[in-house]
Amino acid sequence: MTLFQPIFLSIWKRKETKIYLSIAVLYSLMVLASTFLPEKSNFMRFSSDSGYLFSASTVAYILINSVNDFVLPSLTLFLLSYNVFKGEAENHILFLYKDLKRRDIFVAKIASLISIVLIFLGLFLVCQFALYYGRLIHLPIFSPNFWNSDSAENAAFWMMCWVFIMESILSILLAACLSLYFGKGVTLTASFAFSLGLSIFQVLGGAFLYFIPAGYFSYDTYTGIGSLIVSLLGSTCLTLVYSSILIVLAYRYFKQMEY
């Protein structure tokens, strides 16, 4: 895709991208700082009962789940997506691509934003594992093992990584769609509503879980690699359904938009 590289580089240089990626580093630094706080402090502290020892993959699962529930990364990603679509049109930056196919521009923008999400996840995992083996491993409740002896916890790690990607893709597409049809206020408000909605559906449980990417995996019902594959497929298929609707709506407006 000839357009991917220049569009990706333009997105890479944005301050919103730098803020978004910096969260991956700062979050791990916050966890690192919490290990030096007094034992009575509960701020971002790990606790263990009955001699349980955390593994690196289990800690990664916990932290990815935590940062995924954190509003700031979602808000920043929504803002970045808004500026990439509506912001560039309002600032007449898209005029530079006036002789190119709208479909190619649209696809390159989506692919570039997804690439930023993958970089975020990779950077977050690198920082987390550096934190684990540089600091946490020296504390009594952490083991030197990368994988947990419980295969369900290892499966939860893979599922959480996948859910993070799926929910981030939905965030990008939802922000793109709302930014084109509405304004910045609606788009940023939607970031809070989206995060809140995911959390509420998880709390409600039951049939509501099948409406969110994270709802297809349960630690209690995990029986082996087969159930993990089913969970991954369920999350993926749901994301594809939502994504298809958002892509159609967003592209319908984008292809007719004046620069």
UniProtKB/TrEMBL annotation:
<keyword id="KW-0812">Transmembrane</keyword>
<protein>
    <submittedName>
        <fullName>Sugar ABC transporter permease</fullName>
    </submittedName>
</protein>
<keyword id="KW-0472">Membrane</keyword>
<feature type="transmembrane region" description="Helical">
    <location>
        <begin position="155"/>
        <end position="181"/>
    </location>
</feature>
<feature type="transmembrane region" description="Helical">
    <location>
        <begin position="188"/>
        <end position="212"/>
    </location>
</feature>
<feature type="transmembrane region" description="Helical">
    <location>
        <begin position="20"/>
        <end position="38"/>
    </location>
</feature>
<feature type="transmembrane region" description="Helical">
    <location>
        <begin position="106"/>
        <end position="135"/>
    </location>
</feature>
<keyword id="KW-1133">Transmembrane helix</keyword>
<feature type="transmembrane region" description="Helical">
    <location>
        <begin position="58"/>
        <end position="85"/>
    </location>
</feature>
<feature type="transmembrane region" description="Helical">
    <location>
        <begin position="224"/>
        <end position="251"/>
    </location>
</feature>
